[in-house]
Amino acid sequence: MGSATYYSPLWLGMLLVLIMNEMIRGLVPAWSVQMQWLVVAGVALAVGAQCQVFMFGLQGAFAQVVPVPWGRSLRGRPAALTGTLLMAWVLLSGVTVLLGFEEVSKAAWTLGVTSLVVLALAAIVYVWGLPAALEDFREPRRR
Fold it and tell me: Taking Cα atoms as reference points, which of 136, 2, 141 lies closest to residue 69?
């Protein structure tokens, strides 16, 4: 898998938001056009990042492998748990935003806090599994 394929959720998520730019700019107060486009760009980056994290979670949950820096990968149960928690975080944070737009504030706050707890758990599981990460893609040293 090349880098263009691996990062395609990021670009596709951003493209989806850019396609819906008129609706997003309609939700922004009567600001200048530049500020409205700045909001659209920020939302595009956020949605693209969420799509990329969801793909990362899918990879962990179903393939049971999560990449780790320095040419290593986390495999097995820690990868599956990290992936599942990341997918739950993306879904919970998306529902939090939707509830916030509908002005259901108590439910939005409850889900928002829950999503942050789930994200913290995913980070803890990921960091806990780092020492057990296996070498995968490290370039061999040449002597």
Answer: 136
Q: Which phi and psi (to 5°) does residue 66 adopt?
A: -130, 125
Distance from C-alpha of 95 to C-alpha of 107, rounded to nearest angstrom: 10
d(CA 75, CA 73): 6
Neighbours of 53 (CB within 10 A): 20
How far lies 89's CA from each of 34, 41, 68, 77, 116, in Å? Answer: 31, 22, 19, 18, 7
Tell me which residue has tokens 């990868």. Answer: 79
* Confidence (pTM): 0.84
Condensed to tens digits (0 to 9), the pLDDT of residues 47-93 reads 999 999 999 999 999 999 998 888 788 999 999 999 999 999 999 99
The residue type of 47 is V
